Amino acid sequence: MLLHATIIVLLVLGGLIVAARLFEGSFIYFPTRHPSGRWDTSAFGIEPQDVWLTTSDGVRIHGWFLGGEDEPITLLYFHGNGGNITDRIEKLTLLRNLRASVFIIDYRGYGRSEGRPNEKGLYRDADAAYEYLTKERGTNAGSIVVYGASLGGAVAVDIASRKPVGGVILESTFTSARAMALKVLPVIPPALYLRTGFDSLEKIRKVRTPLLMIHGSDDTTVPTAMGRELFAAANEPKRFVEIAHAQHNDVFWVAREEYLRVIGIFLAELEGNAEPQQAGSSGQANET
Q: Using only C-alpha atoms, what is the Rg of the chain?
């Protein structure tokens, strides 16, 4: 009887491993493809410039550029694993009010971008966006702040570990794909089935630029403790802001004013126009 039960358990675990390897991408990426989405931005009072890029492996991707030539900071925005760029319209609109241009891309397989998402592909997409800013638009690398939300944080950390940037903002970002897999399937070693790495914990040690991390106190998708572990591995100067009562996807909505305030302070400090301040003074956030 014990042998029979053991065989059943092993078969179930084996099936889970095979399924995880075969459908790995389906467990990580949840894109919304065009025409789904809020592509008519007129109701939000913005007219983003459509940007089409070709990556180093020949994939055509799409992005939006919002801004002009005079803003001192350009935010290179990498969104999370779900939806597409149209789901971030409200946030993009308000970030524009912080004297910053914003360039957001849809990864391959998202929105109007071609291809299928995978880890190396997302890094190539980010490189194409960076090259567009620095080469086609002539943006100074020191004025580029890479901004990553959730999965986008892994993309932001990767590019900041390899290329010069002026700053990094991470929102609700995990340490690695394996750490997230252990959270979901703690009984199966991720090395048996997971090829995706997104090892921000290792890469962030190579980032030598000011860092702002924002995390919700009630995040159960990427626990706050995981965000703090990533923060602990980062180099100075760095700042961790915990938004009270916020979960994984609602940090911006729970404390919009505080959210924008701490980012505004961070960007102003990068410009050299503000002295360091306590970002959590309103009582809605705790700063480290």
A: 20
